[in-house]
């Protein structure tokens, strides 16, 4: 399904999936996907650390899922109809509505690992203080 917004300057037509909707077999895509583990600290601990800072900052993760590429071996979707040839679609990025929060957090952790030598402090903050759009803070503005 597509959502059209004429007033949008960046994305006039956005593809929307309902991964919780049951297929003709009664099973949804979300029923077939693994949930993934918890790869971040608990929210209470993150919020306590967040409130200790004099200066706080957040990040807009609105389009984050659409920036995460899916393994090419796992991106094919097909629809088999008895009255015509099967249709093959490729979904190249993680989509909203699926069990994708684990993947988003896991990708951030991998990025923090990969870039640790160049960005030591940012890497530590990403591992320890990230929760959805809340990142962290600092004692002074120049430390950000």
From TrEMBL:
Organism: Araneus ventricosus (Orbweaver spider)
Superkingdom assignment: Eukaryota
Protein name (Swiss-Prot/TrEMBL): Reverse transcriptase domain-containing protein
Xref: InterPro entries: DNA/RNA_pol_sf
SUPFAM superfamilies per the UniProt record, alphabetical: DNA/RNA polymerases
GO-annotated biological processes: DNA biosynthetic process
